[in-house]
């Protein structure tokens, strides 16, 4: 008997669940030859609001886990992606097979890189400070809270992973907007996040139009920092909105060429930009 | 049960009538679909603020915590310099031992009333004399309103007369204080039982008194469904007797959106006459912060962080 093919409905991963946009809107996604891949959710500011609520709810539990455990979970995520390389490569169309496989491999390596940093970044970021008095004085890092991530158009998987991983490794949670022209990799990445021991709500992925969602990223006071890539006009709007809530903004210029595969696209500085430092004075001998 | 009591029991049930469970569920499901935006939303949010019974009912309550609660109750939004933007809440709700502290914090003629739970809240499992003494003590300490619990054990055993007589005794002990009768809907199991218990209370209450869903101390709290059953009972009682009784859902109402949905239920069941804090209240501890947060969102256009509205919120 001929079998009816079962097509997948692309859904975004928010709060540990796969959801459609609350608006019910979608936009069609086509491959290089113009064939329809699927209809991707066109998320709204209310979806962003709900995602931030989910991220805030997941936050305290994620931050309370040991750094060692967070590292294990990131490593597990890398394992999940490695095992499904072929599927994720297909999601990176219209990239050639070879380019897609290279991007997936680099994304796995990037996760492994940050998994390694999980239980080491505190030693590198924190310090014991010399002070003129009978005190121990030490500085430790703490997660900031909910981070808004805005992924660039290019490298829809590697750039997204490169922005998310340094944020969550220290105990932050993330609401990320996927590449606008090529969002499908983020849809598939969501399915891997769901199977990776990462608690629901730690990473929330939205797909949609930048011009609809960036104003809400700019004004949402619950986002403690913005991290991502934006063009000049977008940066101005995001910085202006962030000034109202005195929020940290770390935006790369979309106009400048960037090599996401380079070693310089990863490392401790990316983690440091999304933590708060706390300095404690403690009397010696007490 | 004796034959006489069985007859009275049956007559009462017959007079009260059953509840169409499926109909109630279907009706309340539709309340969530109403679209309330802009001015209507701001109106609803401010109305909800004015209806809040700001509650703290914990073993770890201190006079300091009650004083802080009272300060917030009088002026919920500390950015609201002139107090024009946001009304005070309806009441603070505390244990009897904290009534005096609340009175000291609020002063003798505050717009915010003091409600006290009494009658061995939340279980009600104490001798009637003890429960009545607790009510008198709370009123004596300055409570304007008393929240009592019904005797669920007697109710479930079918001893309606005893339940009703105890409500009457507490009502008389209240004197001039308003009485709120907590049915504890989660322990009554069915909508039919909730309606029956509602009528047991309604027939004993004075204008200005309330019936209330829950203590907030059990797993299940106020839902739109049991709120609706009780609102329907209040309407039927009002149409039959002309006596208007208030309603107070309590427990589990944490978000502004939930509160607006409950207000829709009130408007569409009882009408505008009940859209006032003399006839409708929210028993809640965290609802107020979300109402303020949504009001600030309406004022500024930007989604707000919850930790700006209460130091008790986890600051993530």
- Main beta-sheet strand count, sense and barrel state of chain A: 5 strands, parallel
Quote the average pLDDT of chain B. 93
CATH superfamily of chain A: Aldehyde Dehydrogenase, Chain A, domain 1
Share of residues in strands of chain B: 5-15%
Number of helices in the DSSP assignment of chain A: 10
Low-confidence stretches of chain A: none
Helix fraction bin of chain B: 40-55%
Written as H for each helix and E for each strand, in order along the chain, the element string of chain B is HHHEHEHEHEHHEHEHEHEH
Task: Describe the protein's architecture and organization.
Chain A is of the alpha/beta class. Chain A has one domain: 3-Layer(aba) Sandwich (Aldehyde Dehydrogenase, Chain A, domain 1). Chain A has ten helices and twelve strands. In chain A, the strands form four sheets. Chain A has a five-stranded parallel sheet, sandwiched between helices. In chain A, strands 5-6-12 form a three-stranded antiparallel sheet. In chain A, helix 6 links the parallel strand 7 and strand 8. The longest helix of chain A is centred in the middle third of the chain and has 21 residues. The radius of gyration of chain A is 20 Å and the shape is globular. Chain A starts with 11 loop residues before the first strand and ends with a strand. Chain B has 316 residues and is an alpha/beta fold. Chain B has a single domain, classed as TIM Barrel. Chain B is built from twelve helices and eight strands. In chain B, strands 7-6-5-4-3-2-1-8 form an eight-stranded parallel sheet. In chain B, helix 10 links the parallel strand 6 and strand 7. In chain B, helix 2 crosses helix 10, helix 3 runs antiparallel to helix 12 and helix 4 packs across helix 5. The radius of gyration of chain B is 19 Å and the shape is globular. The model of chain B has no long low-confidence stretch (mean pLDDT 93). Chains A and B meet through helix 1 of A and loops of B.
């Amino acid at each position: 008997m001929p079998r009816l093919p079962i097509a997948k409905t692309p859904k975004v991963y928010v709060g540990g669940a796969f959801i459609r946009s609350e608006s019910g809107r979608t936009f069609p996604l086509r491959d290089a030859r113009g064939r329809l891949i699927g209809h991707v959710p066109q998320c709204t500011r209310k979806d962003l609001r709900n995602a931030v609520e989910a991220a805030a709810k997941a936050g305290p539990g994620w931050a309370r886990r040991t750094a060692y455990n967070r590292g294990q979970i990131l490593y597990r995520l890398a394992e999940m992606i490695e095992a499904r390389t072929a599927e994720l490569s297909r999601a990176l169309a219209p990239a050639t097979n070879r380019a897609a496989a290279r991007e997936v491999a680099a994304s796995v390596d990037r996760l492994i890189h940050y998994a390694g940093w999980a239980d080491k970044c505190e030693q590198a970021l924190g310090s014991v400070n010399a002070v003129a008095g009978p005190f121990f004085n030490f500085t430790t890092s703490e997660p900031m809270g909910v981070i808004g991530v805005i992924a660039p158009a290019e490298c829809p998987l590697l750039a997204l992973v490169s922005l998310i991983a340094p944020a969550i490794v220290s105990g932050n949670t993330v609401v990320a907007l996927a590449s606008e022209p090529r969002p499908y990799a983020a849809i598939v990445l969501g399915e891997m996040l769901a199977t990776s021991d990462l608690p629901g709500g730690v990473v929330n992925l939205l797909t949609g139009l930048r011009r609809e969602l960036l104003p809400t990223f700019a004004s949402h006071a619950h986002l403690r920092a913005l991290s991502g890539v934006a063009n000049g006009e977008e940066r101005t709007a995001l910085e202006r909105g962030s000034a109202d809530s005195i929020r940290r903004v770390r935006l790369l210029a979309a106009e400048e060429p960037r090599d996401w595969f380079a070693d310089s696209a990863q490392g401790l500085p990316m983690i440091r930009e999304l933590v708060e430092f706390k300095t404690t004075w403690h009397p010696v001998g007490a | 049960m004796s034959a006489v009591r069985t007859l009275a029991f049956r007559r009462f049930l017959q007079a009260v009538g059953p509840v169409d469970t499926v109909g109630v569920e279907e009706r309340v499901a539709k309340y969530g679909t109403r679209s309330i935006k802009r001015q209507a939303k701001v109106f609803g949010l401010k109305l909800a603020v004015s209806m809040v019974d700001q509650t703290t009912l914990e073993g770890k309550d201190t006079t300091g915590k009650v004083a802080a609660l009272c300060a917030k109750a009088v002026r919920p939004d500390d950015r609201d310099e002139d107090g024009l933007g946001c009304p005070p809440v309806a009441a603070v709700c505390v244990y009897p031992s904290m009534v005096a502290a609340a009175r000291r914090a609020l002063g003798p003629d505050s717009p915010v009333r003091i409600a006290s739970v009494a009658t061995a809240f939340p279980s009600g499992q104490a001798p009637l004399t003890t429960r009545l003494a607790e009510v008198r003590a709370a009123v004596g300490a300055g409570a304007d309103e008393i929240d009592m619990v019904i005797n669920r054990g007697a109710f479930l055993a079918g001893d309606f007369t005893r339940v009703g007589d105890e409500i009457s005794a507490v009502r008389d002990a209240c004197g001039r204080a308003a009485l709120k009768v907590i049915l504890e809907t989660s322990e009554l199991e069915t909508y039919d039982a909730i309606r029956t218990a509602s009528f047991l209370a309604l027939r004993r209450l004075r204008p200005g008194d309330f019936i209330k869903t829950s203590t907030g101390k059990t797993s299940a709290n106020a839902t739109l469904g049991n709120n609706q059953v009780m609102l329907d009972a209040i309407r039927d009682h009002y149409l039959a007797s002309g006596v208007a009784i208030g309603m107070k859902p309590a427990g589990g109402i944490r978000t502004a959106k939930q509160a607006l949905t409950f207000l829709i239920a009130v408007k569409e069941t009882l009408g505008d006459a009940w859209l006032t804090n003399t006839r409708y209240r929210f028993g809640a501890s965290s609802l107020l912060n979300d109402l303020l947060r949504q009001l600030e969102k309406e004022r500024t256009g930007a989604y707000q962080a919850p930790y700006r509205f209460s130091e008790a919120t986890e600051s993530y």
